[in-house]
Automatic annotation (TrEMBL):
PANTHER family: ALDEHYDE DEHYDROGENASE-RELATED (PTHR11699). This is Aldehyde dehydrogenase domain-containing protein. It comes from Physcomitrium patens. GO terms for molecular function: aldehyde dehydrogenase (NAD+) activity. SUPFAM superfamilies: ALDH-like.
Length: 494
């Protein structure tokens, strides 16, 4: 496929929008456009349409009609389209990765990793979706039969985040389409060019336009989607704050709601860890990969006081060795943060910690900054839970490290936030790790690893980290609803 850059295919031009506005009597440019900004330079690289509530409703109505036919399309045909989509992802990976890197600052090597790993996620769904559609007979006697059949939800909406735009969208649309749903997709305003590329590839793979549709815009467009009447399901990925708003918007319609929200994911390094240096390297990667902008990034570290100094110096050494710079360079490990307004938020967390006694070690080797949104990767040591950095999601290249006395203190601190996404333990024996992980109120636990998502495992957050499940067999089941059917033999009716 000859795939032009998505930036060349952006909705209406600003000039066209302004002309349309003038024709309606406005004296200024229309406000229904938003800028796409390259975080590595701060420059505007495109303009996109903010779709109105009416446009959202009309897309939804077309999907509702399309879904009625789609649910009866033979499984083998739906499978062929998603297989083709996967092939297109693979073939177009370099172009797709470049768009992603340019619009949200993800280092190019990591952008390629994301596209590659998306192929694996879709493959998991392809291999397993038929299992969740299979009806089951739960009772069969001479007079009575009871069975359960599984039906698609209908039109599902996917309002999503920008940090892993391929993951957070395919988690929903691949499972949803395969199980007979139609999808209204609202990508983040910080990853809409990628959203457009995903949409184009799905169409090229044969998915009909009245089965998958994208709407562009910011929060208002998201709100228009979340408050649609008649949605079969609403799948949201984003911040805790927006998640709570979405829950209110969807509540009057009693829509099935899933929320994949933020985290404050802890790691505990026990004194018996096999190799302190290897643990420090692994955890530094878990904290700073994707510029710390992963929902399951390591956000706080607790280290047994007997190995604290050794761990801290190994950790800082790793962080100072990271290459910070232009995300399009193949060896860049840390790029800019995606959103300029996040810079003062991160600076405030650092200042708050320092004012309460923390020590900061910051990376200062940025190659050159052409006006990009760079934040120096920073390690805060001697931190405690009076500091924001240990309680509130940072979502950037920033980490706090605290010494602990023992397992009991580590456990208490790990549970001491409102979030519950993932947690890790680095230690010698897996049983010790499992004993601790089972005491934590989180959706995923790791031993001697962190910051990873498996397509085979259920992905879920607890408490402030969300509601519901994607991925794994449990995640596939999120896209179907069970119906119980009872057959009573006519002769035994009374
Ligand atoms: P965000 O909440 O700012 O935006 C997410 C989406 O919601 C965007 O599409 C946005 O346009 C839309 N939106 C914003 N305001 C809205 C409103 N009032 N009503 C309806 N829609 C609205 O989040 P973000 O900055 O895009 O993403 C970062 C957050 O997402 C982090 O907290 C991160 O941890 C979380 N996240 C979680 C997971 C997970 O699997 N749990 C995965 C990725 C990201």
């Amino acid at each position: 496929m000859a795939m032009a850059s998505a930036a060349g295919r952006i909705g209406r031009s600003r000039a066209g929008a302004a002309a349309a506005a003038l024709s309606r009597g406005f004296k200024v440019e229309r406000l229904d456009m938003f800028d796409v900004v390259n975080p590595a330079t701060g420059k505007v690289i495109g303009e996109l349409l903010i779709e109105s509530k009416d446009e959202v409703v009309s897309k939804f109505e077309a999907l509702a009609a399309g879904q009625k036919k789609w649910r009866s399309v033979p499984l083998v045909e739906r499978r062929a389209m998603l297989e083709r989509f996967n092939e297109l992802l693979r073939l177009n990976m370099p172009v797709l990765a470049k768009t992603l890197s340019t619009e949200m600052g993800k280092p190019i090597a990591q952008a390629k990793n994301e596209v590659r790993a998306t192929v694996d996620r879709v493959r998991f769904y392809l291999e397993n979706y038929e299992k969740v559609l299979k009806e089951s007979c739960v009772l069969e006697t001479s007079i009575l039969k009871e069975k359960v059949v599984y039906e698609p939800l209908g039109v599902v909406a996917n309002i999503s985040a920008w940090n892993y735009p391929y993951f957070v969208s395919t988690n929903v649309f691949a499972a949803a389409l395969l199980t007979g749903n139609a999808v209204l997709y609202k990508p983040s305003e910080h990853a809409t060019l990628t959203g457009m590329e995903i949409t184009n590839l799905l169409y090229e793979a044969g998915v009909p336009k009245n089965v998958f549709a994208m709407t562009t815009g910011k929060g208002e467009t998201g709100a228009a989607v979340a408050s649609l009447k008649g949605l079969g399901g609403l799948f949201f990925t984003g911040s805790n704050k927006t998640g709570l708003e979405i829950a209110k918007q969807a509540a009057p319609n009693l829509v099935k709601l899933q929320l994949e929200l933020g985290g404050k994911d802890p790691v505990y390094v026990r004194a018996d860890v096999a190799d302190v240096g290897a643990a420090a390297a692994s955890i530094a990667d878990g904290a700073f990969y994707n510029c710390g902008q992963s929902c399951c990034s390591v956000e706080r570290i607790y280290v047994d006081k007997r190995i604290y100094n050794e761990f801290l110096s190994a950790f800082i050494k790793n962080v100072m060795a990271f290459k910070v710079g232009d995300p399009l360079k193949p060896d860049t490990y840390i790029g800019p943060v995606a959103r300029q307004p996040h810079l003062p938020y991160l600076a405030a967390q650092v200042q708050d910690a320092i004012s309460k006694g923390a020590r900061a070690s910051s990376h200062t080797h940025l190659e050159s900054n052409q006006g990009g949104f760079y934040f120096p990767p920073t390690v805060l040591s001697d931190v405690n839970h009076t500091m924001d950095v240990m309680k509130e999601e940072s979502f950037g290249p920033l980490i706090g490290i605290q010494a602990v006395e023992n397992d009991a203190e580590a456990l208490a601190l790990m549970n001491d936030t409102t979030y519950g996404l993932t947690a890790s333990v680095y230690c010698k024996h897996n049983q010790d790790a499992e004993n601790i992980l089972r005491e934590l109120d989180v959706g995923t636990g790791y031993w001697n690893c962190c910051d990873r998502v498996s397509p085979r495992l259920p992905w879920s957050g607890r408490r402030g980290s969300g509601l519901g499940v994607t991925l794994g067999m449990d995640g596939l089941r999120s896209f179907v609803k069970p119906k119980g059917i009872v057959f009573q033999s006519p002769s035994n009716k009374d």
